[in-house]
Amino acid sequence: MGKKRGKRGHSSSSSSVGAQTSPIGTYDISTGTAEIEADPFRDGAYILHVNGVPSSHIVPGEPRELEFEYMRWIAAAVEAFAPGHRLTHLGGGACSLARYFADTWDDSKNTVVEFDAKLGELVREKFDIPRAPKVKIRAGEAREETEKFLPASRDVIIRDVFAGAVTPTPLTTVEFFQTAHRSLVPGGLYVANCGDHSDLRGAKAEIAGLKEVFGHVAVIADPPMLKGRRYGNIILIASDTELPSQHQEMTSRLLGGAVPAHYKGPAWTEKFATGASGRHDEDD
């Protein structure tokens, strides 16, 4: 899924409800198998694999430690542009981002939509995930659950859903973006992890689709990815609130990681996606 890792200094977070016994092992889940293994580079940290694919990294007692670079990019975007602290996470894994925001913002309410019900139960049992309303884990398919959301009922939607190495097509269409947009408050924020190949056709199609629904679209990625040199992650950012062409504070943060990334504003994305068309449900 194009997860990037990189070391950084430890946070001083005081969230301390850790697992009492080692979570290492292989577990049956609804869709197959989950494996929790020790991080070979850091004592006391773990990596969750779902059906053989690295899904999440978690450090019990340190919710602000985000090992995957793309998660740090998402956190930077949300902290820069979120209009409020009601967050919905489409795609759960070990709830790394939900834990992060629950600790970062005392008043945040995080709803995690996880397709695999047993996986949600497993990570709740093995890791220090705050209880509702801080973090609520809701079993269900992301598109179906999004269609159930009440209008203007959340401030931020974060999509990080993969089937293998790709996001399911129903979560990349104009109709899905319209559904997400409807559930956001005016000026709400939509953020998506787009895994794409060097041709960047997927990212361009998603940007084109988002532009049909939201007033402004920006991206975060590292330069080799933006130049189409390999498979990797592009973080898509959409809102009806104006997004800046540059963001100095966030840029400094993005450049400080092990994999330096760049923020590109709406003018850049307009040029980047020239000629691309958004996907529609009927295209299938």
From TrEMBL:
GO terms for biological process: polyamine biosynthetic process. Keywords: Polyamine biosynthesis. The keyword Transport does not apply. Gene3D superfamilies: Vaccinia Virus protein VP39 (3.40.50.150). Residues 1-24 are annotated as: Disordered. SUPFAM superfamilies: S-adenosyl-L-methionine-dependent methyltransferases. It comes from the Bacteria. Residues 1-10 have a biased composition (Basic residues). PANTHER family: THERMOSPERMINE SYNTHASE ACAULIS5 (PTHR43317). This is Spermidine synthase.
